[in-house]
Amino acid sequence: MWRNTQDAYGLVSIILHWLVAFTVTGLFVLGVWMVELGYYDRWYQRAPDIHKGAGVLLFGVMLAHAGWRYSNPPPEAIGSVMQKKAAAWVHRMLYALMYMLMLSGYLISTADGRGIHVFGLFSVPASISGLHNQADIAGEVHELLAFALIALTILHALAALKHHLMDRDQTLKRMLSIKH
Amino acid sequence: MKYKLLNGIALTIVLTVPSLLQAADYLIDTEKAHAFIQFRIKHLGYSWLLGRFNDFDGSFSYDEANPTASRVAVTIRTASIDSNHAERDKHLRGREFLEVDKFPQATFVSTGFTENDDKTAVLTGNLTLHGVTRPVSLAVKHIGHGPDPWGGKRRGFEATTRLKLADYNIDFDLGPAAREVELFLSVEGIEQ
Predict the structure, then answer these.
(1) What is the CATH number of the domain that holds B100?
(2) Residue B174, min C-alpha distance to chain A (Å)
(3) Is position B122 within any domain?
(4) β-strands B81-82, B47-53: how paired?
(5) Is B90–A40 a contact, with Cβ atoms under 8 angstroms apart?
(6) Could you list the mean pLDDT of each consecutive 10-residue stretch along chain A, which spans 180 residues?
(7) Does residue B151 belong to any structural domain of this protein?
(8) How far is CA B36 from CA A121, A145, B41, B158, B179, in A?
């Protein structure tokens, strides 16, 4: 039930997958929305604080996900050799983009040595700071990566739907339920 | 030999006399940072937010005998804005404020200088900021002048002025108390 098997995802993988999926989508929407807020908007301070705090927590979830995936490999992909290869590369790109996004976000907020406060629970200290135009460059990179990640996520979701609707296989179902 | 000596004297006169008669030119000492361009703006109407531009250069000329002929020109690299908070500076450099990619420089070129008897003066000129050029007037105070300990001569002024952000097409609403920004400039020139 908890662990992955040869052909099914366990509950831990399913929860981690959807937790990451909803957090990434939420952070994207929040990010796009918050940068347009007016100075007197009541969310002007709160929204970026939530964005940063959730981003830091997502990093923790991603590490847990990586650890779990390493110790408990996912079921084998379904499809042709080419499809499997493509899927594996999209997954690698998704991970790479997410980690780079979190790193670039961290570099914006810590550009002048300030740490990131995570919902008043703890702070992540700055490490790399004071690089020339650090906040600006990291900001541009962060925005570009965010759109790239969402584009790739859409591709990932469309591929899952294709498996479900056209190939009529278990790819999507097994990420939605432990009994199929 | 005699000819050479005369030539030398003539040359000395040619080089010396104008500096006695004409205005002295000064290079603003940004190299050793004895010059500052600071701004302050009300935050919500409750306090002052202070910042500065770190990268600028300029020069002025000043003639004690004819101060009206004084001239000043300053160029500011707008990307060097520094309010001691990287995320705020990023915002200030961005499209809602200074748009430093589009308008990397702000310039001031004087058009007039009227000195009072009490070491104060009014400096007028054209300020180009965010792509908009407008006449501005600065209240100037002559702080001091004289030899420095390293063989040069220096002269320094402070100046203040106040700008309406909307005049320079900076429209981001920071609230009713923050429509204007005050500038404080402190410049020390090294005589050239």
Answers:
(1) 2.40.128.110
(2) 6
(3) yes
(4) antiparallel
(5) no
(6) 90 96 98 96 96 98 95 92 94 97 97 96 95 95 98 96 94 84
(7) yes
(8) 40, 38, 16, 9, 23
- Count of beta carbons in the 10 Å neighbourhood of residue B78: 22
Chain B residues whose beta carbon lies within 8 Å of the beta carbon of residue A45: none
pLDDT of residue B1: 47
Q: Which residue of B has its CA nearest to A114?
A: B85
From the list B149, B138, B141, B145, the residue with the least C-alpha distance to B188 is B145
Q: Does residue B16 fall inside a structural domain?
A: no
**Tokens of residue A90, six digits:** 């999209």
Please judge whether A38 and B173 are an interchain contact, meaning their C-beta atoms are less than 8 angstroms apart: yes
Between residues 80 and 99 of chain B, which touch chain A (CB distance below 8 Å)?
A: 84-87, 89-90, 93-94
Residue numbers of B between 28 and 67 with CB closer than 8 Å to A: none
B38 lies in some domain: yes
Give the structural domain span for B32: 22-191
In total, how many domains does chain B have?
1
Q: ipTM for the complex?
A: 0.84
H or E, element range at A49: helix A46-71
- The C-alpha of B190 sits at a distance from chain A's nearest C-alpha, in angstroms, of 29
The domain segmentation of chain A, as residue ranges, is 11-175
Return the structure tokens found at B67.
């101060």
CA distance A118 to A108: 15
